[in-house]
Amino acid sequence: MRSAGKSRTTRHVLSVTAATAALTAVAALGGAPASAAPSVGRYVALGDSYASAAGVPTQTDSACTRSDRNYPTLVKAALAPTATTDVTCGGATTVHMTTSQNSSAPPQFQALTADTGLVTLTVGGNDIGFADIIVRCVTLGLFAPSGSPCRTSYTWTGTDRLAATIDATAPKIAATLDGIRQRSPQARILITGYPAILPDDGSNCPGVVSIAKGDAPWLRDTQKRLNTMIATQAAAHGAVYVDTYAKSVGHDLCKPASTRWTEPLLTTAAAPFHPNAAGERAMADAVLGALG
Question: Going by fewer Cβ within 10 Å, which terminus of the chain is more open, N or C?
Fold first, then answer.
């Protein structure tokens, strides 16, 4: 009996030691402890370049600018789903959920199945013309750095055309969320917002990127309007909104390389105006936090 008791005690100590090691390993991945990690079954990642991690080394799919350090890969590592399909692709819009984007990128919804347990989605930025907005504002800022030339170009008619475009994108986000639910009725659907690109205090950094002084706060507010729209649609269509903006404040492209999570125009760490590896990690942490 004493021998058996000693054996049970030894097994208990070993069990506690093994459990502690497992929790430590999961924490190192930035995820929830193994005992708290939800069982997600099959995981499908949908979305645009903020989800594919455009330009972040190492790129594993050049046609879709997809990185092996994008937030879906980090979420997969933390949750260990039974299966994962990552079809995130740079340049994707809501249209590309149901139509092909290029010869190697079929409609993203084709990845969805009835047994999918988790879907993450980042989309909407390209629907409002993200790339065109950046090109226009950076170019116009060169000629009127102290003014608000970009804002003027979008509002000269008396209507803020970007605000109107965001409002017009709302039904597209709604239809996308409904489309996911129809194809994967049991899935938890998480749709992310976009992390801070410019300083949250409305300042600019002309030595880093030529966004005019008066355009910076307007662009910040425009991004917040987009995030608010996405959050509203998530709430109305049975999805969970993942706030990636709040914790990214102070990590915008104006900050030093060691601090920023979003890259400026001249960079090798990611595509310009996109999250770097640290930014993708922060997005993954926000997704894992939303899962509980």
Answer: N
- Residue ranges per structural domain of the chain: 1-30, 32-291
Distance CA 109, CA 167 (A): 24
Return the exposure string of 82-91: e unless at least 16 CB atoms fall within 10 Å of the residue's CB, then b: eebbbbbbbb
Q: What are phi and psi of 142, to 5 degrees?
A: -65, -30
What is the homologous superfamily of the domain 32-291 according to CATH?
Answer: SGNH hydrolase (3.40.50.1110)
| Interval 224-244 mean pLDDT | 98
pTM of the model: 0.87
Give residue 37's pLDDT: 58
Q: What's 110's DSSP letter?
A: G
Checking if the pLDDT of 28 tops 90, the result is no
Smallest CA-to-CA distance from 57 within 49, 75, 69 is with 69
Type and span of the H or E element at 201: none
Structural contact between residues 261 and 275, judged by C-beta atoms closer than 8 angstroms:
yes
Rounded to whole angstroms, the Cα distance separating 95 from 188 reads 22
